[in-house]
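Its record is quoted verbatim for completeness.
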Amino acid sequence: MFVSLIIFIVLIMISSAVLAVFGLINQEYGLVVSALSVITATISGLIAILVLKRNADNDRPYIVIKPNKERLNYIQLEVKNEGNKLAIIEKIEADNEIVLNRGEHLSQVVINNVLPPSSSNVYVLCFAKDYSEKNKNYTTKGRIFYKDPNNRKYSNEFIFNIEGMGSAVIFHSDYQRAIHEITKIPNGIKQIEKELTKARKGD
């Protein structure tokens, strides 16, 4: 719709410009003024259409598929709605089928998932320690299809890969590192207790 209107307006502008040149050549200044008026009006119309198109592009869902590193020692896949409208996922078409940690196919798991704006679903792909042997299995590109509550349909391409994530996942943030260190405290206390017991027995 927007493209057709833009093409129509551009054609009117070109025709008006030709008429303006014709008027100048033949010294028909009334024709020149009329042609310039039409050009001015079409420019205003073009600007209005571009603004409407931009607003329409912003007021829509937009689904992305990307790696997620927020869970310690896991490599995950995140399906997120980065648009401004609720999305209902219809299907995924990919060059390589993405198989999740429990054997489910991503293309089947996401069907009819409802994602409000800024929300996401996260799925475990594999343990970070298995990264090297599974890396190539999760490199793919494809297209995801979805619709909004008014049944307007959308789709966009995606490229997904976990290349270079193996070591990065272990400690993605200082928070994760701190949690990991805290979980080691009980083991450290037990080791100290064992050493103290040994020391007492030695006495």
